[in-house]
Design goal:
alpha+beta, Immunoglobulin-like, single chain
């Protein structure tokens, strides 16, 4: 293979050998036959050295293999990219795409195929797409890329006698790529913790909204403390013009800390006003509002007097 890969370069080497022969053994050189033979042998060796140099200077294509980035999962295709490059001033090469592998752990398919010129290099790029079907440790096998100088192809595009069989072309082999295939994490495994956090956050927001304006713990408050706290909310609701919840709190204060007999008339009046405001849309006058709040405030003040007794 290597000999055929460099076959197109031997012409340059042989031409250098011929030039070296003429320089070191011209026709008009007068010397002994033995000396001439020695010089001719030396010239031949020197010519071979120059020919080898010519072979070294003519850079052959190089192949680079780029495996997948990141983890590989079952059912998710990944790409392996093969890039062949050679210098612009060298021969233009024909490259044959490789035969697709048939791994028993997945399905392989041809991807993009590109040919371009980047800076001073010809770049031939081929993508191999593989979709794993099972998890485990596997290897993307080495692929053979056959190439041949375009100069050895006839004008009508038919390969010459020596190159009509791609198997005779020189080739480059890619590096095998070991990889680990993982089973993807179920969406439920990821989604359940997230759902739990969202539910907890919504429950916390609802709890704080429901508890706003309520005492932190009614059990640790004395009746008078609780009543003063409720009355403070009554004053805020009155300023905001929210009369229905205001009368609800006034009625609750009297029913809880008032005297059922002594405050019977006040309780009945507050119930009637609450119903009229909430269901009939009635708005009490300022005098009625002030009178009702003062009456409830007297009930709370009576608690203070009773506690002193």
């Amino acid at each position: 293979m290597a000999a055929q890969a460099g076959k197109c370069l031997w012409g340059k080497a042989l031409s250098r050998i011929a030039i070296t022969w003429r320089i070191y053994c011209p026709e008009d050189l007068q010397m002994t036959k033995l000396c001439c033979i020695k010089i001719r042998v030396l010239s031949l060796l020197f010519g071979l050295l120059l020919g080898a140099t010519a072979l070294g200077e003519a850079a052959l294509p190089t192949l680079h293999t780029h495996g997948p980035e990141g983890k590989v999962y079952v059912g998710m295709p990944f790409t392996v990219t093969y890039v062949m490059t050679w210098e612009e001033e060298e021969d233009f090469y024909l490259v044959r795409p490789p035969e697709l592998p048939t791994p028993d752990w997945g399905v392989a398919a041809s991807g993009a195929l590109e040919m371009m010129l980047e800076d001073t290099q010809h770049v031939w790029r081929f993508d191999l797409e593989i979709t794993p079907e099972v998890e485990g440790e596997f290897t993307v096998p080495a692929l053979d890329f056959f190439y041949f100088p375009a100069a050895d192809v006839s004008e009508v595009g038919v390969l010459s006698e020596d190159t009509d069989s791609p198997e005779l072309w020189p080739s480059l082999s890619s590096d095998p790529i070991p990889l680990s295939v993982y089973r993807p994490v179920s969406a439920w495994i990821i989604g359940l913790p997230v759902l739990g956090v969202l539910v907890l956050a919504l429950a916390s927001l609802w709890f704080f909204w429901w508890r706003r304006g309520e005492p932190v713990s009614e059990e640790v408050l004395t009746p008078r403390q609780w009543a003063r706290q409720e009355f403070h909310q009554v004053q805020r609701l009155k300023l905001d013009g929210e009369l229905y919840p205001m009368y609800q709190r006034l009625l609750r204060i009297v029913e809880r800390v008032g005297d059922a007999e002594a405050d019977k008339t006040l309780i009945a009046r507050l119930r009637d006003t609450e119903s009229a405001v909430g269901y009939q849309g009635k708005r009490p006058s300022e005098d009625e509002l002030n009178g009702d709040t003062r009456d409830v405030e007297r009930v709370i003040a009576r608690l203070k007097e009773e506690s002193r007794e």
